[in-house]
Amino acid sequence: MNDKSGLIGGRLDRVDRRWAARLALVAGTAALLVLLVSAGLRSVALVGVGLAGLAVTAAAVWWVLARTGVVRALALVLATGAPVAVLVFYAVAGVLWVVLVSLALWTLAVSAGRTALAEPGPPRTPERRVDPPRRPFLIMNPRSGGGKVERFRLVDRARALGAEVVVLDPAHPQDVAELARRAVDDGADLLGVAGGDGTQALVAGVAMEFDVPFVVICAGTRNHFAMDLGLDREDPSACLQALTDGVEIRVDLGFIAGGDAGDAGDVGDVGDAGDAGGPSAAGRERVFVNNASFGAYAAVVQSPGYRDDKARTTLQLLPDLLTHHTGPRLTVRADSVAIDGPQAVLVSNNPYRLGDPAGLGYRDRLDSGVLGVLGVKVDNAVQAASMLRGRRGSGLTSATARQVVIDADAPRVPAGVDGEALTVSVPVRCRIEPGALRVRLPRHRPGVPRGTPPLNWRRVREQALTVGRAAAGRAPR
């Protein structure tokens, strides 16, 4: 019965994608015809004006971020004025409605085309049914996510399920990793955290160390790790179902260490410890479940004024950081890929999606066994405009690697590790440990939304025609 249902579902999926491909071709053709029939040869100029407006806007945004004073003010006027000027041009030419209709049809064509090319998602991480834990131990941060622990009554609900719960006291920071170690020594057979990703990472490292399962309760602000595990981020209490009706998977963990000794290097906190509660251990590798960032963003978040006024602090610091007037100059080696002088680098525990703007920030898998690497290097307005091309832009480098080394012309560099502000001795080494962490999940959970591939019109046409022939009983050529 299950095999037959899966077969029928697969056939229906292929039929849906065939019609999506046909819709994409019809809508794309209609978008072009609307321009040609209504504007004739002027349609080429209309498209050119629109593209030029986008490029000018992108370049102006770069100047806003990278310049100060009068130049920044003029760039801001240009960034807001260029799109308005393009619309006024279309209106004066009497073709505004033509452009809007054509743009709507083209948007429909692109959306349908990407849907047509979407294959079934990557193989799910193998999971197995498990018995409920006997002595679960949970750490909860009442400040995380604006007070989600109290709002969703997580403490009472967890204790009702037999869990021992420690609620952190914001007035008296505690070492959450040490709390977790003591709990395992006392017999805990499962560790869990209701808090931000920084706290999740610290306790996940202890769970890996003792090979006990780990539960993620998405009570933080962004909950990126929970998102990529497919958990319900709207209702943190649903995560507690992992204690009674759970499955277990194994996921990778990232590690960061600084200094010539590699895993004996220095990773130290700066500022407060965020919601992690206590300092990390210097002289050892530090775990990250999401990513480690270097460069402009990492430097900005370490500024004393960032917490009080994020926008103002960012605009004050970015010009010197983006033009390399301040901050260390980075070099990155990711296996065979080298990046010289990027303004920003992101090393992630498994790669992020890039081809799907709507899915940017998602990771399709957490068990691929490789780090994702994104490097941004934009030195002028032309390169800033080229970023409109996405992954094909000259300023963006994307790679995967088992180990990444970040060096600099300074002895230490700022870093953001799962949202925690740190300083790290160079060279910084990031590596991945495949299948290092046992994660306990609710058996019923939303899952990760399926990504869509980059648009390829040749493949869309083949999808519409080839699948149609196959459905009619003729083998595709």
Helix content: 25-40%
Average the pLDDT over all residues and give the rounded result.
82
Q: Structural class per helix/strand content?
A: alpha+beta
Spatial separation of the terminal alpha carbons: 32 Å
Fraction of residues in β-strands = 15-25%
Radius of gyration: 25 Å
| Major beta-sheet overview | 11 strands, mixed
The stretches of 5 or more residues where confidence is low (pLDDT under 50) are 1-12, 261-265, 269-283, 467-477
Number of strands: 18
Total helices: the number is 13
Apparent shape: globular
Give a description of the structure.
The model is unreliable at 1-12, 261-265, 269-283 and 467-477 (pLDDT under 50). The chain starts with a helix and ends in a 6-residue tail after the last helix. It is 40% helix and 22% strand. Strands 1, 2, 3, 4, 5, 6, 8, 10, 11, 15 and 18 form an eleven-stranded mixed beta sheet that branches. Strands 7-17-16-9-12-13-14 form a seven-stranded antiparallel beta sheet. It contains 13 helices and 18 strands. The protein is globular, with a radius of gyration of 25 Å. The longest helix has 38 residues, at 2-39. With 477 residues, it is an alpha+beta fold.
